[in-house]
Design goal:
This protein has helices at residues 2-42, 48-101. It is mostly helical.
Length: 102
């Protein structure tokens, strides 16, 4: 039962790491977009009003993704610790069951 729980936790941990990686990639992409917007604004390709609206939207999205990333990092850290605890428990249980069985 605990071994199955450990397996499902590891699968969930892998999934969360993938989501975190995607969030980090998206934040990098948003940085590049904001930089291009700024350059377009400086070069006169974009009005100041349009630049302000777009940059505000992208910055809001970036803050949202940042909050998600922080939350995922905490969850990953907690789950990794729990998986390690379960693994240690299973090793101890196996060792002691071997002693009792002999």
């Amino acid at each position: 039962m605990l071994a199955q729980d450990e397996i499902s936790r590891k699968a969930e941990l892998i999934q969360k790491r993938k989501v975190l990686s995607g969030a980090q990639k998206r934040m990098e992409d948003l940085d590049k977009i904001i930089q291009r917007l700024y350059e377009d604004s400086v070069l006169g390709k974009l009005s100041d009003l349009r630049f302000q609206k777009l940059s505000a939207q992208y910055e809001m999205k970036q803050e949202e993704i940042q909050r998600l990333a922080v939350s995922l990092e905490q969850e990953i850290e907690n789950e990794a610790g729990q998986i390690a605890d379960v693994g240690r428990f299973l090793q101890l249980a196996e060792r002691y069951s071997d002693l009792i069985g002999t």
